[in-house]
Design a protein that fits this description.
Elements: E1 4-7, E2 26-29, E3 34-36, E4 41-45, E5 48-51, E6 56-62, H1 64-67, E7 71-73, E8 87-92, E9 98-100, E10 105-113, E11 146-148, E12 155-157
Antiparallel strand pairs: 1-5, 2-10, 3-9, 4-8, 6-10, 7-8, 11-12
Length: about 170
């Protein structure tokens, strides 16, 4: 898929770039030096916009190396109709100040398909509040499976039986 870049003063060395052809995200870059104090948030202009096709949205995801230090990109969607400059919204959720150097990689630009939903008041059918398959055939409530034993090797039992041995867990 090819997506047109809209130039808002983008230096050539700051164009979104994948390190490897099969990377999910394309790196985006810091246009200036910035120090984020703990709890701080910065709106970083990336110097470009995108012409995202209908049915898709763009996001600036965090880089794992920065996230491990507490520096994360928030994930507001860039809608297909938006033609302004894209910003990375960067938060420091760690306990130490973090310096983001000019020209360093700040996030990963990812394009994802989205479902355009119609939100309505009535779908035309009845649905209760139950979830997770909580009823057996005939509408009889199914009791939950409970862990038996302890530690990482506990097993699940229902009516004294393991799943697959005639019990109802996992069905």
């Amino acid at each position: 898929m090819k997506i047109k870049i809209i130039d808002f003063g983008l230096p050539e060395n700051h164009r979104p770039l994948r390190s490897h052809a099969n990377d999910a995200g394309a790196d985006v870059y810091m246009p200036f030096d910035c120090t984020l104090e703990p709890g701080g948030i910065a709106k970083i202009p990336l110097g470009f916009g995108l012409e995202v096709p209908d049915g898709y949205a763009a996001y600036v995801f965090p880089r794992s190396s920065l996230a491990a230090k507490g520096v994360v990109c928030e994930l507001p969607p860039v809608d297909s109709g938006y033609r302004g400059e894209i910003h990375a919204i960067v938060s420091n959720v760690g306990n130490e100040a973090q310096t983001l150097a000019k020209d360093s990689r700040i996030g990963q630009l990812i394009i994802m398909p989205v479902v355009i939903a119609d939100f309505v008041n009535d779908l035309g059918g009845q649905r209760g509040a139950g979830a997770f398959g909580r009823r057996l055939a005939g509408g009889v409530p199914k009791p939950p499976c409970l862990p038996v034993g302890g530690g990482a090797q506990h097993s699940m039992r229902y009516n004294g039986q393991r799943p697959g041995a005639g019990g109802l867990c996992g069905r």
